[in-house]
Design a protein that fits this description.
- The protein contains six helices and four strands.
- It is of the alpha+beta class.
- The protein has two domains: 96 residues, Alpha-Beta Plaits (2-Layer Sandwich); 73 residues.
- It has a four-stranded antiparallel β-sheet with strand order 2-3-1-4.
- Helix 5 packs antiparallel against helix 6.
- It is elongated, with a radius of gyration of 24 Å.
- The relative contact order is 0.12.
């Protein structure tokens, strides 16, 4: 599966037209639905900037996506021109593929998910420890000498967590791709 991600900044006062264009029954989505490999899309509006939208289109394969655009080239160009008339700017944010690594399918998936859960557990427990220490610092116990040692140990543990993740990242994500 691939996901194409776009950011669109719509001209002032043209939001409704743009939403109709990319909406569930809009012309762009209708054209995409002509392909059996079109899996759907996510259409999101920015809460902070009401004229900014994020569109994510999901396709089964890149080859099928390219073939779809070649088969409907005239219609795609016409719709792209129509879309461009509504926009201030369009920014392609990237082309992503799903890793499809489930924990129960193979040893790699099991190791990846086990390490991600372990790392997440480390981070959560250290956040709790940090919050408890911060709360203690505002009590009468915060001035005790041992609290400074606790803070120092907490800082060392944070370093351990992120320094441990660097070689794991290389081992889990880069090494399999370099070997393949």
């Amino acid at each position: 599966m691939i996901a194409l991600v776009w950011q669109f900044d719509v001209q002032a006062g043209r939001n409704d037209e743009f939403e109709s264009f990319y909406g569930a029954d809009g012309p762009w989505t209708s054209l995409s639905r002509r392909s059996r490999s079109y899996l759907g899309s996510s259409f999101m509006r920015d809460l902070a900037m009401s004229n900014r939208y994020l569109v994510i289109e999901y396709w089964s394969e890149m080859v099928v996506y390219e073939r779809h655009h070649a088969d409907f080239e005239d219609e795609v160009q016409r719709l792209e021109q129509q879309r461009q008339a509504l926009l201030q700017q369009s920014v392609p944010l990237g082309l992503f593929n799903a890793l499809n690594v489930l924990w129960h399918e193979n040893a790699y998936g099991s190791v990846v998910w086990m390490l991600l859960v372990l790392h997440t557990t480390h981070i959560l427990t250290d956040w709790i420890d940090t919050l408890v220490l911060a709360a203690l610092m505002f009590t009468t116990h915060g001035t005790e000498g041992r609290r400074m040692v606790d803070c120092s140990e907490n800082a060392v543990y944070w370093r351990f967590v992120w320094l441990l993740w660097l070689p794991l990242y290389v081992l889990i994500y880069w090494l399999p791709r370099l070997v393949a």
